[in-house]
Amino acid sequence: MLRLENICKQYDLGDTKVDALKNISLEIKRGDYAAIMGPSGSGKSTMMHIIGILDSATGGKYYLEDYDITALPDKEQARIRNKHFGFIFQSFNLFPELSAMENVMLPMTYAGIPVKERKERAAKLLYEVGLEHRMTHLPTMLSGGEQQRVAIARSLSNDPDLILADEPTGNLPSDKGEEIMEILESLNKRGVTVVMVTHNPSQGKRAGYVIELRDGELCSSSTNGDSNV
Ligand SMILES: Nc1ncnc2c1ncn2[C@@H]1O[C@H](COP(=O)(O)OP(=O)(O)OP(=O)(O)O)[C@@H](O)[C@H]1O
Ligand SMILES: [Mg+2]
Fold it and tell me: For a designed S-S bond to 197, which of 44, 79, 160, 178 qualifies (C-beta 3.0 to 4.6 A apart)?
């Protein structure tokens, strides 16, 4: 599905330069459930941002299917991002003034989906994550686990092929984190490719494929058993 070839990311801070990613080459196949692991500062979020086309590499090539993403104009990159990717972040990133339902509807608004369909689809997605009784709540009226479930519903609103989750359970107690993991796993079983950053070794073991970063370098990538191949 996607392939990174010698991807580098250097942040230029004037007198110092930070090599956040150094020559990363890897492949993620359609249907994979991949975990990115590594110590703080090792480049995990940077890698997620590049894969999600939220940021661009300073070297190397990124192929999505057969498109050379590095060569596409910004507008086309944005179109691919909105149509094919769903994002989940550690801090949920919901709009505080919008209800659960409105947060889930927002990406569909950008995608030009008619309002009736937006509402129906948002309600269905919130139902699927167990929040049918919380549709009109603002994020501040929801628990952390509920907010993250709204974020998952939102990430699914445009029916993505790839979900990118950066420490999705990082701000949650373990039982609520477990609910999030189960939702991600059931999405993967339905065929959605999932790439997740985690610090939690037991979560890493549940992924089919583990990518380990150290100091911006790929230090290992391995397949766990035959869980999803
Ligand atoms: N905008 C930026 N400007 C300069 N340096 C940056 C920037 N963003 C990240 N870095 C540096 O790049 C390196 C990788 O950062 P990144 O956020 O990818 O790490 P991470 O593995 O996600 O860490 P964590 O587990 O703490 O989230 C770090 O050394 C960080 O300080
Ligand atoms: Mg990070």
Answer: 44
* Contact of 151 with 94, CB cutoff 8 Å: yes
Residue 66: C-alpha distances to residues 71, 94, 97 (Å):
12, 33, 40
Number of domains into which the chain is organized: 1
Give domain status of residue 62, yes or no: no
Q: Is residue 44 part of a domain?
A: yes
Nearest-angstrom CA–CA distance, 59 and 207: 28
Say how many Å lie between the CA of residue 173 and the centre of ligand 1: 24
- Give the residue, by CA position, lying nearest to ligand 1 atom 30: 41
Q: Determine the distance separating the centroid of ligand 1 and the alpha carbon of 44, expressed in angstroms.
A: 8
Residue 151 in any domain: the answer is yes
Q: Taking the model in full, what pTM does it have?
A: 0.92
Q: 15 in a domain, yes or no? A: no
202: Cβ below 6 Å to ligand 1?
A: no
CATH assignment of the domain containing 99: 3.40.50.300
Residue 54 DSSP one-character state: S
Ligand 1 mean position, distance from CA 24 (Å)? 15
Domain containing residue 196? 30-53+78-223
pLDDT tens sequence across 57-100 = 999 999 999 889 999 999 999 989 988 999 999 999 999 999 99
Please state the length of the chain.
Answer: 229
